[in-house]
Amino acid sequence: MLVLRVLENVLQPSFVQKMTVLNILEKIAADSQIIIDIFVNYDCDVDSPNIFERIVNGLLKTALGPPPASTSTLSPVQDITFRHESVKCLVSIIKSMGAWMDQKMTVGDSVLRKSFKSDTSLERYSNLTAEDGTVPDYELQQEMSSELSNAATLEQRRAYKIELQKGVSLFNRKPSKGIEFLINTKKVGNSPEEVASFLKSNISGLNETMIGDYLGEREDFALKVMHAYVDSFDFKSMDFGEAIRFFLQGFRLPGEAQKIDRIMEKFAERYCKCNPNSFTSADTAYVLAYSVIMLNTDAHNSMVKEKMTKSDFIRNNRGIDDGKDLPEEYLCALYDQIVNNEIKMNADSSAPQSMQVNSLNKLLGLDGILNLVSWKQAEEKALGANGLLIRQIQEQFKAKSGKSESVYHSVSDVAILRFMVEVCWGPMLAAFSVTLDQSDDRIATTQCLQGFRHAVHVTAVMGMQTQRDAFVTSTAKFTFLHCAADMKQKNVDAVKAIISIAIEDGNHLQEAWEHILTCLSRIEHLQLLGGEGTPTETSILYVPNTENDEKLPKPQSLKRKGTLQNPAVMAVVRGGSYDSSTVGVNSSGLVTQEQIKHVIANLNLLDQIGSSELNHVFVNSQRLNSEAIVAFVKALCKVSISELQSPTEPRVFSLTKLVEIAHYNMNRIRLVWFRIWNVLSDFFVSVGLSESLSVAIFVMDSLRQLAMKFLEREELANYNFQNEFLRPFVIVMQKSNSIEIRELIVRYVSQMVLSRVSSVKSGWKSVFMVFAAAAVDERKNIVLLAFGTMEKIVREYFHHVTETDAATFTDCVRCIIKFTNSRFDSDVSPNAIVFLRLCAVKLAEGGLVCADKSSDDGSYISVVTKNDSDLQSFADMDDQASFWVPLLLGLSELTSDSRLAIRKSSMDVLFNVLKDHGHLFSRTFWIGVFNSVVLPIFSGASPVVTQGSPTLKSPRTDGSPPWDPDTSAAATQSLIDLFISFYNVLRSQLPNLVSVMAGYLKSSIQGPASTGVSALFRLTVELGSRLTRDEWQEILIAIKESASATLPGIMKILRTMDDIKLPESTRSSTTTTESSSEQGLTKDDIEDDNLQTAAYVISKLKSYIAVQLLIMQVVTDIYKMNLYFLAAHNMHAIVETFSSITSHAQQLNSETALQKKIKKICSVLQSSEPPVVHFENEAYQNYLSFLQDLIKNNPSISRELNLRSLVTVCEKILVIYLSCTDYNYSRDKKPVETPVTHWILPLGIARKEKMAARTPLLVSALKALSCLDRDSCRNYIADIFHLLVDLVRSEHSSTEVQHALSSIFQECIGPIIMQ
């Protein structure tokens, strides 16, 4: 303790004594094990003082010297000697710590844990609880009985001590908060008795005043603690004066009277309990205690002039013993005892120590350390080795002599160094920084720099990031590279120290690399400006003022004339702060020639550092471990960005070094290199998108150099690294606004691919993505340049693309498809379609016959939609088959392009490819292609009506433009051709094909319906003999359902006419105008909206009739062409189709009111009326002809049923005709009974016209009936005889009806009657 007292005496020390102490400490510090053992056995022991901490803090005080404005007995020489020696001791301490660490780590006694990377090591131990199986902290003082202990236990002890000191410090400020903290952290038990015992023992530096203040509190828990505290004393057989003296030795009475009252009241109660016969009651002891306290203060306070006499003391205590006086002899003895021997606390007070710790904490605040410029020490009293000090030390030794002998601990785990560093790093940083800043002595500054190096070594290896960065930053600041005008030799030595740190401890620097690399960048910059020769073009990059000025001019040298106005020179001369990246830029005024000469003289000092030393740092990157090299690259990228963003002269020093270290470390394992490239990739992208054209060009060129080197390395299959290192080209190509950069990237990528085409593997993906971005570029030269390279790849190097995997070929196809979307249609888009076909030819020439690897049921193939994820449905196929998928899907997507030429061309190519190379596909693959490539082209086809002609919507639902009729017809015919050509393979897909064609028929638009009809007819003609009866039934049922499906829609449309009201009008008796109708209506009489609605309804009705007639015609044609291939149930399907259509026609004709309204509107619109009557006539005529032919040519197919159908149809025809002759005749019922008329009026012109329209149909029906044989006539004639009679009595407009009727009566009815 004497040594520490001498060390801590700063103002009035003895020079000889203090030098002796410093020499002793230097020798102790030289032994690394002693330093460790001191910390372990003292600073980690709760019962021992912090010897190591006090040594370090004492050395700091000595290194800083006497505080400003204080008086000292030291001469300046002595003061400097003390400072240098103390710094030397601190350097020896940190050096020994590093040596011990290196020794232990080399021997391998312990391994650094990953937890070293955290700066919160104490948190692990501060939260230990008894529930976790660990001993509570307040019991740790009684353990550690073994001779050796592991580092974990010592860490707990150290953590316990630090936290206990924290609680004591809090108690000495706010007692209640301190007790609460100590209880919560389990340093003290939570019972009042345990807290009282802690306060009474006071082995942790509690302030006696604060103890008394807390004991006097009136809160419930504090009151219980005070009671427990007093009850812990045994006053038995003690004199009252001795008892109160013994009681007050552990604390100082508070100043508040109420607090004193509570304490004295409890003391009196306890004393009387221990000595029941001493006083009559506790009140006597209570009053006497107060008197004794007042007497002690009066007798021993120098401020009290008139002292209390013995008689005064006796008079003050009269009648206090329950109205009686205490014996006068007793009071006189008590008076003499107090006056002669003051009641006071123990001599070993911790208040000075607490004050010392607080002042030291203020001195070592982190902000003050890292930004140390000026400081102020708290004044302290001079301490001398006088008799009082010796007596106090002796008393401390005596007090501890009764304790058991302490256990000596020894550790070998380097983890203990973390706690030592946490204690000493602040004082060391302050001492080294202040000395290095204030002193120019070479020896002293060298010592400080060595201290920085050793401190960085220890903190870096131990993973203490905050401390490591603090030492590295301080060293970097002292290089003065940011302020070259003030540079001295010690700053050059700091530069050398930085380089040494980089080389020796590079594996542990992590984020601190940024400070070191920033220094290297500034060194190179200053050497460049101070040199005589011309630097290389990779040193300084000039930002041109105009777009055309892209050259890299030679930078200005400080030694050249005419540089006074150069911004970079002015910035260097003016200097700035360490953290400023724009030093001196915004300063006003020019620099003088004298200032430049001064800077040049200082820069000459940097000649001591050669370029080889700088390069050694970068070359040494090959030796960094995997974590360190990634941190190194991250830091170098940050420094490079700051260089390139310089407002005066953008530089590329760090950028060129990035290329170099990438080359140096290219042979690292793939996992490490992948992490490095992730950093570099982001860097190249961010800088490549720079607004500075010259910077972006240089970065892209650097990336090209790296890429060329990477392509020299062979990449195995299924790896993705080439794609990763080419990705920056893709991102910059997609995001850059610079035309020059985009063109440059296309040229670079083209050059790399064509020169290293055999080495490209996964890189094809990025290559095609670059070209895909170029395909949609706004500049024609970029598009043509990329397209030219793509042409060369497809025509000459196609096998390199397909030798990788299917994904690469997919990217190739997508890229070509992008070119089909180019705005330069005439030059690029058509040729891109040709390239897609060329890709198919290349695949076919390669003999990519798809092996069927799964069962033929194709269960894993599903109909897919057009998106990229659909390729997954082919994942289980043969690898060769997967090459076809992207090509076919790409062509399929192009069929919905907005440009007519592209649609037709892609359609032709797609179906030609399938027809020409479909024989290479397996059955399973063919089914997959048909469902996922071909059919989706037609899926969802629906009609849209424009102002011109109706068209068919594209088979996409993404808003693509509609198909024109020609494209639709060509696509459908190509589909039928394809299906016919590969019918044996695709036979199972007939229902899907028929469904597509049925979709055309359901469109209710004549154009698409005509396309569907033609396709179905051709399908049945080509495959008629090969279709089974079930397949025929599939086709015929689809046609029937198509015919029926449209009726609800058209009827719903017709119902909209009910809301249109036409004005009543009379026939004009005068002349009519051109716009007059037969009823006298004009366009002005009908609202425009109603007129448009009516026009739409009429158009839809005409289209519907046309489609129904087409369906009927195709059914008739299919029947005639395939009569002998159809079975009975097939014929029934045809019958149902005719029946359905005739029913539709009859339903439409029954809407007489609607027809009249339509007729009026058509006259107004001057358009033809919907051929409703014609539709009904044709429907019945075709139905009748079919039944006649069926009965004639297929008598075996349900003859009786067909005869019944024939008679029923004829009956309906007769009713339709008769309804035209007589108003009382209904289509749905027989004529009503009418009164007998004696004359018949002739028919009007209108009725005669209706009858004339129905006459051919009636004649056909009558002829069909006349052809019935005698038996059939006998069976069915009764049902229609009344109709025949009505025909006889009706007036006819044609003689054909009479002839047909005559034939029936003669050939059919007559023979029956004559029998």
TrEMBL record:
Listed transmembrane segments: none
Cross-referenced InterPro entries: ARM-type_fold, Mon2/Sec7/BIG1-like_HDS, Mon2/Sec7/BIG1-like_HUS, Sec7/BIG1-like_C, Sec7_C_sf, Sec7_dom, Sec7_dom_sf
Keyword Cytoplasm set for record: yes
Topology within the bilayer: Peripheral membrane protein
Domain SEC7 span(s) in chain numbering: 153-341
Major location category of this protein: cytoplasm
Compositionally biased intervals (Low complexity): 1065-1078
Pfam families named in the record: BIG2_C (PF20252), Sec7 (PF01369), Sec7-like_HDS (PF09324), Sec7-like_HUS (PF12783)
Name this polypeptide is given: SEC7 domain-containing protein
